[in-house]
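Data card: per-record layout.
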Amino acid sequence: MQPSRTRAPFVATDGVIFWKVVSLFFELSLPVSASGLGLPEQAKMNSSSIDGTSTASKEICISLPPRVNSDGVWILNATSSLTNFSLPLLEMQLIFVFISNIVCYLILNSFGLITKFVSQMMAGILMGPHVFGGMKSFGELLFPLVSQEMLDTIAMLGYTLFLFLSGVKMDMGIIFRTGRKAMYTGALSLLMPLLLGMGTLQLFGNRWWGLRSSEKLELIFATATHSMTPFPVIACLLSDLNILNSELGRLGLSSAIVSDLFSGFLNSVFTLAKVAYDHSASRAFMDFGIIVVYLAVVVLGARPAMYWMVRQTPEGRPVKDLYIYIIILAVLGSALLSVWFDQLIVFGPFVLGLAVPDGPPLGSTLVYKLDSMVSGALLPLFVITTMMSVNFSGINLNSDLAMAHATAMVVVIVAKFAACLVPPLYSSMPMNDALTLALIMSCKGVVEMANYSIARGQNNIGEKIFSLAMFTILVTASIVPVLIRRLYDPSRKYAGYQKRNLIHHKPNTELRVLSCIHKPDNVPAVINLLERISPTRENPLAVYVLHLIELIGRASPVFISHQMQKKTLSNRSYSQDLILSFSHFQRNNHEAIAVNVFTAISPSKLMYEDICTLALDKLTSLIVLPFHRKYSIDGSIELEDNTLRTLNCSVLDRAPCSVAILVNRGHIRRSTPSVLASYSIAMIFLGGNDDREALILAGRMVNDSNVSLTVVRLIAEGEDSITDCSKMLDSEILKSFKYHSAADHKGCVMYIEEELKDGTETATMLRELIDNYDLCIVGRRYNVESPLTTCLEEWSEFPELGVMGDMLASTDFSGRCSVLVVQQQMTI
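The structure for this 828-residue chain is written out next.
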């Protein structure tokens, strides 16, 4: 018997799929029936509408034992092709699915639709019945009816693991730290659209009198699902838009967590009510008791066990693979248990994920081991296969059901958007930011899609509701990111009208410096540099230390002020050592230095947000960044971190004050008070805003009697005269150093002028000069042309250091002199 050529829709099921897999395993393990092993077995697929009025049967043939591997391409014939074997067929399906996903992403990305979810939905439509799926040969050969169950099983497993990882990344402690604005926004974003949507269905119930009771239940389910604001959807959206750790992104995450908790509670209540309606009240009460017991086991048993795993892991060592295997086994077991007490199959894994301690070492290890496969392969497969089952041609807005559904969706969307506007506007948030927050909370994604898909697989909703809901999700997910990018630019807040740099810093006032720390090696170099700034009671120094940690194993960024709480971030991190080092630095400079330590945990590509925001809030005049290269004692490169380099470039482009990049050659050392002028500094001056800023910083350092400063002014031949305003400012700022050089008999300040021809002579002079000093200060002078740097730009490796800084930091310069590259405030 030949298989039917009628292609059934792809439907993602829940626990039924897992039970079928288990049943198939036992069936293959038991002796076969009298029909004989390998003979075709007939199976019927019954597809009935939710009200049971119509039934369609399709007969397919399968062979036992199943033919998994082919015998090779050379012996295949017309009756035995690769598509007759399950493994080659599955591999070809995955290849086509992922190629279509990549193509759609590249095309949509060129139009500004950058979210991966939208590209996956479009890939599903491309592979669906409206495009390639409508071709008879494509559907019969590549996606035959017998292969759908295996593909849907893998996809549903991917979504289950995705929700588990979403629970791992969620920080439940944020509930107790969230403000009223986030609390009210999250609550209203669910309750208002739910109440108004249900009210709309009740109000117009008489108008759609022709609807059956099952169709009315479909509308109620669709209204409740569309009223949700799932945390995983909002977290993925903010991550795709690169505003995860912005002020608005943090508020959106907090609001989404609040709304998701309400949604989970209401979803469980509705599920139990449905069990009581379909079966009996006693079964619903039994399910409720099992849920309570499961929650107690997770909270009182699983979570302490996971903390025990954390304690058993030595600091800096990876978590044992045995612990990871145990947790994955618990995830699969909790999925089966969820089916037993009539909950969605994702309920148990999601709750178990919430119990996992977020962040390192356990949460980050789980995310590191699973996230690439889940988010990169299994979840896109789930989205694409779900969209392949959508039939948009079946949407008929002239029917009462479609009109009722469309009206309810419009009411829910408008009500959610308006409800999310009220708390921000009430708290005097700017209109653009309030509109952006409302758009963020109104976005739809994979969680809503999964709810509709599971309901479709359980015959709780029909094809019309399912297709119209998928269309609504597609439109919302496509438009919202574009509108958010038009309304919200997180970098615009860094541009101000106040000059926050060293040149305009008032004398005898507190100088505020923000120092960024990534690794323990950065601490000594930064402390020694800050000591050279010569803080005194008359010229105090306020140091804001920002410890930057990459966000791994959690979805919500964290920003901690260690002055606001006594408890440190984690006993397993080196934040405590950092705090102790700077506290000791403060005690050694009593009444001259004030130190405040902060910790920011955020994605590496978004760390610039934390740096620039803190600099803006604290009104700092200078940001000190470590260079992305670490040099060994002999001058060779020991470590290179390109992620840190990208971060430095982002800060230089957006910083609300001046920025300095410290290239530590390992020669910045603490001066010995008994030795006069034991620390020597050279300032290379060519002219311009950055050089003048660097000269002011160097002049502040020379206030220490143990520091000697040499200002080397490089002049191009034939350019001695003052020809513009910039050179006039250069001449004016150099007068004081010329005077101090002439009047200083101790030699602490020296002024030298060198007349050079071109870049070759400049490089030669610097090579001879660099070995005589401990620290060399230069201005960045990015894109500033000069005859003295002719041809040097072609050899520049790191534009963020400028031509001079790049040359001094190069490995070609074998000297051990550290380099400080200064850029004056740009965003004015």
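Known properties of this structure: Residues 255 and 759 are 57 Å apart (CA to CA). The first strand starts at residue 41 and ends at 48.

See the next section for split statistics.
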